[in-house]
Amino acid sequence: MDKITTSIITIGDELLIGQTIDTNSAWMAQQLNAMGIWVHRRVAIGDIRDDILDALAKESAVSDVVLITGGLGPTADDITKPTLCEYFNTRLVQHQETLENVLHIFESRGLPILQRNLDQSLVPETATVIENKRGTAPGMWFEKEGKIYVSMPGVPHEMKGIMEDYVLPRLAKDFKTPAVIHQTLVTSGMGESFIAERLVAFEAKLPAHIKLAYLPSYSLLKLRLTGFGKDKLSVAAEVSILFHQLKDLLADITVTDQDISIGEVLGNLLKEKGKTMGTAESCTGGLIASWITAVPGSSAYFKGSAVTYANEMKVKMLGVKPETLQAHGAVSEATVQEMLTGALALLQTDYAIAVSGIMGPDGGTPEKPVGTVWIAVGNAKRTVTVKYQLRYDRERNTQMTAVYAMNELRKLILE
Amino acid sequence: MDKITTSIITIGDELLIGQTIDTNSAWMAQQLNAMGIWVHRRVAIGDIRDDILDALAKESAVSDVVLITGGLGPTADDITKPTLCEYFNTRLVQHQETLENVLHIFESRGLPILQRNLDQSLVPETATVIENKRGTAPGMWFEKEGKIYVSMPGVPHEMKGIMEDYVLPRLAKDFKTPAVIHQTLVTSGMGESFIAERLVAFEAKLPAHIKLAYLPSYSLLKLRLTGFGKDKLSVAAEVSILFHQLKDLLADITVTDQDISIGEVLGNLLKEKGKTMGTAESCTGGLIASWITAVPGSSAYFKGSAVTYANEMKVKMLGVKPETLQAHGAVSEATVQEMLTGALALLQTDYAIAVSGIMGPDGGTPEKPVGTVWIAVGNAKRTVTVKYQLRYDRERNTQMTAVYAMNELRKLILE
């Protein structure tokens, strides 16, 4: 088969009332895409028999592979298994290895076992059972009229285990997949339409099997070049040549030529230079530190943070002068300057970031409306301060402040 | 009409290759659900003409309202608008108010304007144009064969503005929607199947129009009771009676009877008691502080945090004894005890949380494998320390540590 198309069906009322954000599909799509399997439809439906049957029929009509997550829990709202039996015209039978796995899990956790847990070892008779090493509900692989269906639990780390251990390797074995190559450039400081204008000639000459996508991500913009083809090496070479041209065209605004977070970009830079950093955070409340430490190995360059949410902590932990707070307020150039100086002294790092702002929805004044934020970055010799006026909600203002601040430090280190 | 059904279509390759997680649909579903409009299908497709046309046809066949986001940007990969013209058999015409809005946005930001920006004021002739106060791409409302279609930009805060300003009020006006009442209980410390066992009799007597859903969320479990009906007051009364029974049955494991985050639960408790808190964080790197300060008004009870990622910072900022680190290691009961004592002294708060652990993927040893975490919570008089052995990846281990730590402090304050 030349091009495998896949649909992902996620089952669960919680997805439809907005109580849960679906992160499973994104992860699955990433994995499939990396091996050249195109996910062309993702569908979320509720724990409703008719809707599940309808979705199975619709998706198998347009896809070779239908991956299904969710609805396999031990409680009464989970009806995926009986509905699968109906769709595949089969019945539930006990699966011995799954029963042993369920018993083992409960024994090892010292928990008593209930009938509803034992029932997790009932599987549709025609399914190939896939072991779930991280939980009680197994995965199930079905084939019907040339189409493949795989049902997996919705708990993210259980689904990931089943995908990695069995589904992805088997799909790679059963299908001859096309090569797909992505290369991503992350830029900052220029809007989508201005970049597009600069890339008119570049985009015009892209061959049909290579696409350019614009993906805004907070204050940054990702440009993703994707090539498809039969031969991986030749696609990679083609994409690589074009990607170098893209980099040259956007050299002045490039943050990184890898698809990594700003925390990773900054971390790589610090590691490369053998430098350390820390943060002094007011309005971001520790978010910058948490993003930086989300990167494995960050202890090599990140020492710590003074989260000085209250003004008295800015004085006590960072040595900000009470007179400065009095004269200029907590959200001011003078305050973030002193926070930065204090952070460098306290944390004994080569570089530091200091931020103070009003994230909303309350706390704004006519002079300093919601969204006012001051950022200082630098080292003992040189500091840069910048002011932003953000226009979003509290969460987005906070996240944008974190991205801006990390990017400012990145630029200062490179200068 | 008695029950309006809605489909949400999100358009964009970035959703299908897993580069972007779809948060728009969840927000939209929440808003619609709150007004009694049931979202029964959510579909994500790529920027592909055939797939867009197919999705419009399929979703309008099963839904009264089809909400569409994405693909309206100024760049070449955005093909939603011409495809909508094709589907509705119309053509693009210039819309004067939108043109003025685009010009105004560019002028007020001091940016030069490009043809591709001006083109954002081109709209399908049969559409009712919806003003976008936060960006250049307007919303568009279509009606065809008794079905409603609304196309909106995919940028979250622009989509939200259009929904709030126009789409939701108009849907409320045009349709007689059923009443939907949700009540959510958040529990901790008991697995899904054990709770289900305790609720067998309760679930058995639930009427058909009231459903109970189990929604795992990190170490917590949410139980959501949802009632539907014609009369809002009577549905609310019915749900309320059942919800009280549910609360009584699960009183020993209840965290909160509202659908709020653990950060909000803890914040509300501190406000109610007039107490303050702070954190000393090693392995969570500021995540606990950032979750607590994500709640508006948290400055009333949150003073700050010492993020002591490096051991020398535990000594310097929190007064942890070098001998303690030497004898027991950074991830130990003795260290988190001293971190807690140090945090209370430094931050001068009523309560504090201290955490230290090994989040992975590296850093584990046979004695302290990845996932080992020590938590201390308390005040000057009383502290509680707990050890967890987590079994997930770095991100999930960190988030679970944050939830566990906040929940421990909640329990201690209540005791």
From TrEMBL, chains A, B:
SMART domains: MoCF_biosynth (SM00852). It comes from the Bacteria. HAMAP family: CinA_B (MF_00226_B). Residues 7-173 form the MoaB/Mog domain. It holds the Pfam family MoCF_biosynth. Transmembrane segments: none annotated. SUPFAM superfamilies: CinA-like, Molybdenum cofactor biosynthesis proteins. Belongs to the CinA family. This is CinA-like protein. It comes from Chitinophaga ginsengisegetis.
